[in-house]
């Protein structure tokens, strides 16, 4: 596991200003990780410290599950054949919301992951434009208003589906909630993304940034801080993606804690800018 002291140094606000920070972080992750896989999946694949980071993109599909909604823990599980509650015909696994035979809405799959519901790749750097498009598509077809003349069961299923889609969309849209959810899928508990053991020096720098936001007297001053936060969050996003790709869940958890601090400051900057309007 990547030492927490190393994370504190690498994730300090000063270090985040430089692109070389990301390379250092990835090198540390590569040197400490041996990926484990399910006993019914591919054989154990050991990642060596001298692996070229540029090859990362070529290896993505080997680590993330190719099936949205499944995880490394369950991707080899057998599929259970289900039938439509109305016409009794077998359901198509590729159409989880409606029966392809009679077009009747089906009961929600309560244990389905949000990635499966939103038909997204199980990746931290998912395509948010595709996510938004999928959300609008599902809401148009599943919205309760469309089922006002249907049976009580169909109305109930519609309401449940719509609520579940809303929750999945909100969770996957933002990097922080998305990352925490990915850790949750892997059984890693998080306290709302906080890190009670954060370095005092790092917290002091955060206080200084917060004071700078409070003392900003012009939109230009606030915008400068906002740009700095966006830069830090962008670099953190890449580092978190690298950690998750390598299965370094505790490293990803610590990086997500850093992300929450910067995301809070970014929101504070937005509030400050609204005061100038």
Walkthrough of the structure:
The chain has a two-stranded antiparallel ribbon. It folds into two domains: 4-71 and 188-275, no CATH class; 76-185, Helix Hairpins (Orthogonal Bundle), CATH 1.10.287. The protein is built from ten helices and two strands; from the N terminus they run ααββαααααααα. With 277 residues, the chain is mainly α. Helix content is 54%, strand content 1%. One of its GO terms (biological process) is [2Fe-2S] cluster assembly.
Gap from first CA to last CA: 47 Å
As residue ranges, the low-confidence spans are 1-10, 12-78
> What series of H and E elements makes up the topology?
HHEEHHHHHHHH
Q: How many beta-strand elements?
A: 2
Count of helices?
Answer: 10
Biggest β-sheet: strands ordered side by side in the sheet: 1-2
Q: Major beta sheet, specifics?
A: 2 strands, antiparallel
So what's the overall shape?
A: elongated
Query: What would the average pLDDT be, to the nearest integer?
Result: 77
Helical content stands at 40-55%
Oligomeric state, counting identical vs distinct chains: single chain
Q: Give me the secondary-structure category.
A: mainly alpha
Give Rg in angstroms: 22 Å
Provide the β-strand percentage band.
under 5%
Number of domains: 2
């Amino acid at each position: 596991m990547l030492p927490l002291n190393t994370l504190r140094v690498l994730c300090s606000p000063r270090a985040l200003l430089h692109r070389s920070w990301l390379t250092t972080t990835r090198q540390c992750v590569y040197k400490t990780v041996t990926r484990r896989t399910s006993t019914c999946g591919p054989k154990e694949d050991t990642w060596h410290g001298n692996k070229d980071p540029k090859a990362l993109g070529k290896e993505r599909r080997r680590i993330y599950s190719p099936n949205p909604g499944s995880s490394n823990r369950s991707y080899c599980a057998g599929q259970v054949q289900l039938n439509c509650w109305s016409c009794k015909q077998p359901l198509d696994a590729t159409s989880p919301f409606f029966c392809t035979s009679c077009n009747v809405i089906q009961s929600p799959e309560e244990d389905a992951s949000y990635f499966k519901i939103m038909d997204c790749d199980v990746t931290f750097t998912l395509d948010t434009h595709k996510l938004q498009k999928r959300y609008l598509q599902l809401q148009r077809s599943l919205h309760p208003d469309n089922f006002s003349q249907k049976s009580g069961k169909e109305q109930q299923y519609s309401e449940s589906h719509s609520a579940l889609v809303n929750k999945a969309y909100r969770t996957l849209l933002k990097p922080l909630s998305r990352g925490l959810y990915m850790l949750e899928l892997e059984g890693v508990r998080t306290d709302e993304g906080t890190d009670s053991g954060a370095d005092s020096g790092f917290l002091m720098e955060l206080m200084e940034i917060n004071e700078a936001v409070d003392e900003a007297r012009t939109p230009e001053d606030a915008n400068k801080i906002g740009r700095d936060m966006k830069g830090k969050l962008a670099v953190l996003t890449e580092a978190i993606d690298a950690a998750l790709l390598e299965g370094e869940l505790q490293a990803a958890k610590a990086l997500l804690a850093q992300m929450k601090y910067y995301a809070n400051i970014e929101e504070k900057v937005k509030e400050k800018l609204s005061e100038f309007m």
